[in-house]
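RETRY 2/3 - previous attempt timed out on the joint model. Re-submitting the same 258-residue input unchanged.
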Amino acid sequence: MADPMKIRASAKEGITEVKILMSHEMETGQRKDTAGALIPAHFITEVSAEHNGKQVLAAQFGTAVSKNPYLAFKFKGGAKGDKLAVTWMDNKGDKRTDEVQIA
Amino acid sequence: MNLQRREALKAGGGLGLFGLLAAAGLITPGQARAEWNKSAFDAKTIEETLKALGASAPANSADVQITAPDIAENGAVVPVGVVSALAGVEAIAILIEKNPNPLAASFMLPAGTEAAVQTRVKMGQTSDVYALVKVGGQFLMTKKEIKVTLGGCGG
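RETRY 2/3 succeeded.
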């Protein structure tokens, strides 16, 4: 299981701003190790954010997203104390969900 | 008559399979809406990527803005944001022309989510970065050149 995500969600004037920092290698599959063999690709393919069970963002990542991906977005609605859950899934089928309360 | 019946059967059969997969937990609602677009992420050129995304001829638009540095010192971490003042933006995609696979990330925005996303991408070399926005079934695009200085010598 991968390390937990760092998620910050803050509601202000009816708009919730979400910042997510995921912990993932994001290996492109283009790099070679010291022996010259290709390092197989290992990267997050999908990220989904849900506010009280309703999807507010669905993202698809390619290999070009940086290591330990950062993602920020905003949505209308959301109040202090509401739940925001973020899930990612990688190309090896690993996944992780973390939940925070909107501040 | 017969043809219609066949169509109906086909549609029914398709739904049945989907329902089965969903019931078995293989497909979550999120996945069902947006499955990872392999052909778009595997495309080697901007044109191929746009085709795979279903955006054949996006119009250039000043209503789409890329927020990114003009010069990125570290190509492994280039902050890129896409903002649009247009209402009803359904999807945003970030493309980097000179990367092995131009498509870096795409975002589906349900109603209520603002057209403002930010992430960090890798860039192999100085390149034009494109932001593609889908609004009301139409595709709009804008681009910005980001210079990548390797080695951090600032040249």
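Chain B is about 25% helix and 35% strand. Closing ticket.
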